[in-house]
Each structure stands twice: as structure tokens, then as C-alpha cells.
Amino acid sequence: MSARCNIADAVTQMAAKQRDALAVVTPSGRDRAGRRIYARLTYGELDRDSDVIARGLIASGISPSMRAVLMVRPSLEFFSLTFALFKAGIAPVMIDPGLGRAQLGQCLAEAKPDAFIGIPAAHAARIALGWGRPTVRKLVTVGRRLFWGGCTLPQLRELGASSAIALPHTLADDVAAVLFTSGSTGIAKGVVYRHRHFVAQVEMIRDTYGIQAGEIDLPTFPLFALFDPALGMTTVLPEMDFARPARVDPEMLRELIADWRVTNVFGSPAVLATVARHASGKDVRWPTVRRVLSAGAPVPIAALTGMRGILSEDAQIFTPYGATECLPVASIGSREILAETRDKTDRGAGVCVGHVVAPNDVRIIAISDAPIARWQDAREVPRGEIGEITVLGPTTTDAYFERPEATASSKIRRGDDIVHRMGDTGYLDAQGRLWFCGRKSHRVELADCTLFTAPVEEVFNTHPAVFRSALVGVTLRGVTTPVVCIERDPLASMPEAELMTDLRRLAALHTTTSRVQTFLVHPGFPVDIRHNAKIGREQVAVWAQARLP
């Protein structure tokens, strides 16, 4: 029989080593003195509870190899249910609830789930909007069940406690989960994760950042929190709206860090920017934090410098580069950014996303919007030349669920291996570092050259009155014209005419921006739900086109 592989085995192994150590804690109110009260789950309890729920799921008729939508808020139950699904060989389907009704409905239709596990509000929406109606046959309610039938979580536990069902012998290539992308550059797609992908991710994250069992993590992105139990860390769940990370309360984060002596924080660039702005001019410190991980988009320099004043001298902010389809691909720390790569970024070199994480094989190929079936049909470009980023590694997923065309457009077969096309442009420098130049679909092709978003935008982002910028292409008199839209810093009071003059002077200083002559001030960019950081440039382009003759 082939060797068993299941990402949930890491929880069982950790429970054997540190049974009474806390796996998850979450705020649950305050005492009379105003101090926070926390609900807690030890590793032993998480392992036992997920075992019981796994058997209960199977006993209720949700069989191994089925798919189950999981719509439960980050909580102790969220962790128990997720690892129970893994143990039972049932693939959780995870979709950002902030995608909106239309996208959620489409994602659920594509995922063809057999079961729906959710809080009462999720079930009410399922019924009202018809989510999963053609395929969902089993229901589990986490909370008060109303008229829709199915099991409650306590009933699942009762079934599992009295069951002698043997949990399945899962293999490395068995489907572990279907995780939907953020949909920030198109329709959200379900990425097929196999158990080997999750196991490799845990190993690569641990080795890259030196994470040790016993550390305390404060994650502001729920999916990243699921790595914590496999890494032996305690998860401290913050009180926040995870669909709107930019609105996080910095004082709440500081209080949790102080209460639990947090050593690791995961936050999107929007979270770090909010914390840095709040701390400006104040004596705010995160003295116990050793590292901050931030992903989803490049972290603004202002956020990096602001966070540097909050952290201790030996702490760093790391910006892992990757995607739902493959993570981590590369990584860089704030020391290297601020000491070296920042200046190049400010002059139009793009954003350095760092050194390739071993054992990934990252190569740059000539940009093409067409599918590439075989590696021999791709053309690798010389070092230093901008092209499309590709990666082959142990976390490289091999397919999208029920989307063969998307799979064909994003995957290249190299012998027996599958290479993932990141959909990003970039290049490798002389030191082997990877530089990000923007999404392939966001490039602006002119008659005699191509402009890429990151090299252009980062030049204008150096202006003190600019919060962020977006390069788009519009059609003027039948010709594609580059336009840079500006979202102003709300604290800057510079007159618009003066700002326009400054930006044109700035554009003339660099080769990468010399073709830009048109600027528009935008009232506020649309951004992705997951990280509140990726700009919806397609929408910005439509807005800009409507405002130019």
C-alpha cells in the first residue's frame, strides 16, 4: 500500500509532542475589570475533536472524496471542522464570502459540492439564492439550525463519538481541498490542492522563515491561519472583519500581541498600512514580534518604514511572493528592501520580490497570451529581460477545478512535471533575485514599446502627495495612450495643478515613465476583497476612458 499522506497528520503529530499546548485562542468578551477573556483549544483537544467530527461526517453520509462547502467564521469550530474534513478525506471548498452574490453563486455551481457546512446566515443565503441546489445533499449547521434540516455540529460530534468508523488512508495525490482565488483579475477559479501541496507548503514556510513550534501567531487572513497547527504555533484569532482588512483596529492588534507575547504576524499590505498610519507620532511597539509576513501585493515603502518603528531592531517584515496556485515562490526581507532594492524600485526597476525559495525552479519566458502546451514551445528570455514568470516546485498545483480552458492557459507540461504560469511579468537580476513588473494582463502595449504597471507606478508612488497610482491604457483617436490615475494621500494638501506639474517632471526623469503624459486624480481605487491591496485596473481603465476626449 502507498504511504499515507494527509496534512491533518501534522496536527496529530504535534498533539503527541505538545498535547496541552494551546493550538487556538480567540477573544470571547471582557471581564468586569475590562480584561479580555479568551476561548481556548489545546493541541490535544483539536486532535480529538477533529477526529470525532471526521467520524461524524462520514457517519452522517458525507463520504470520503466528496466536496463540502465550508462557510464558517474564523473560530475554534473553523479549525476543528477544517482538520476533520482533511482527516475524513472530504475536500473543503473555501470561497471568500466578500466576492459578492454573483461570483459566489458561480463558484459554488462550478465546485459542485455534495455538502454545505455553514453558519445559519450562510444557510439562509444558500436557500434564498439557490447556492448548490443541484448537487448539495447533506447539510451541517454550525449554530442554531432552523427549518432546513440536516445535522448540527453537536449532533455530528455525537455521531462521531459513538462511531467506530476507520478514517480513510489518504494518499499524496488525493484532493485535499478546492481553494478559490480572489477573483481580483477576473473570475475566481477553484484551485485543486492535493495533500502533497499542503505538506510541501508547511515545510517550505517553516524552513524559509525559521518558524519553530511553540511560537504565537496573529493572522489577519483566515486561510493562512490554517498553517499554524501544522507548524506547531498557537493561533491568536483577532476580532476583525476579515473581508475588510484595511479597517482593522490597530489597538486591538497591539492588545492581543501584548496579552499573548505574539512572535509572528501575518497581515496584508492594507493591514500594515493601517497600522503604520495609526502608529505615526505615537509610542506604539510590538516588542515580542520576531517577524511579520505580508502577501497579496507589494507592500508600500511608507508601510515598511512605518512598521520598522513599531518592531524591535532584530525583527523583519518578509514579503513572500506567490499565488493561490503556488506559494511560496520567492521571498525578501525589509532590511534588503530598504537598504538596496528600494532605490532601484523608485527609479523604475519594478518591485524586487526576492530570492527564489528552494527547491522552486523559476524561469522567465517570452510573454504570450496564448496557451503553451509543452515547455519546448516556450522561449526563455535572457536574464534581465522582462517576460512572464513561471514556476515549477513542490507546491505548484496542476489544475483548476472544472475549468479546463483556464488550466490549459496557465499550465505547461515539462516532461512529467507541470509548470505554472504566474500570470505576472518580471525578470531575474544578476544575483538571481526575482523582480515583479505587474500582471501580464495589465501591460500597456504602445506602437513601439510595452509599459508594465509596477515599474511605472512605483516611480509616481514616491511623490509625497500620492497614496498609490494605477497605469492603464485608454484609446484616444484610435491610438492606445498610457494614463496614470492617482489616488491622493488624504493627508496631503497640495493643489491639483501643482501635483500634475510635479508628476510630469517626475515622468521625464526616467526611461520607464517618459511616455506618460496624462494623469487623472481618482476618488478611490477599487481593490480586491481578500487583501484590500490589488487595484482593479480594469475598472479604473473604464473610468479613465470615460473622462478623456
* Mean of pLDDT: 95
CATH architecture of one domain: 3-Layer(aba) Sandwich
Question: Stretches where pLDDT falls below 50 for ≥5 residues?
Answer: none
Q: Would you tell me which CATH topology of one domain applies? A: Rossmann fold
> Assembly type of the shown chains?
single chain
Would you count the extended β strands for me? 27
Whole-angstrom Rg: 24 Å
Short description:
The chain has 549 residues and is an alpha/beta fold. It has 17 helices and 27 strands.
Set down the secondary structure blueprint:
Blueprint: H1 9-17, E1 22-30, E2 36-42, H2 43-59, E3 67-71, H3 76-88, E4 91-94, H4 101-111, E5 115-118, H5 120-129, E6 138-141, E7 151-152, H6 153-161, E8 175-180, E9 190-194, H7 195-209, E10 216-219, H8 222-225, H9 227-231, E11 234-236, H10 250-260, E12 264-266, H11 269-279, E13 291-293, H12 301-308, E14 316-318, E15 321-323, E16 326-331, H13 334-346, E17 351-356, E18 361-365, E19 387-392, H14 404-410, E20 411-414, E21 417-428, E22 433-439, E23 444-445, E24 450-451, H15 453-460, E25 466-476, E26 479-488, H16 496-508, E27 518-521, H17 537-546
Characterise the protein shown here.
- With about 550 residues, the protein is an alpha/beta fold.
- Among the domains are: about 10-15 and about 20-30 and about 45-195, Rossmann fold; about 335-440, Luciferase, Domain 3 (Luciferase, domain 3, Roll), CATH 2.30.38; about 450-545, ANL, C-terminal domain (GMP Synthetase, Chain A, domain 3, 2-Layer Sandwich), CATH 3.30.300.
- It has 17 helices and 27 strands.
- The strands form five sheets. Strands 15, 16, 17, 18, 19, 20, 21 and 22 form an eight-stranded antiparallel β-sheet that branches.
- Helix 2 crosses helix 3.
- It is globular.
- The protein starts with 8 loop residues before the first helix and ends with a helix.
- The mean pLDDT is about 95.
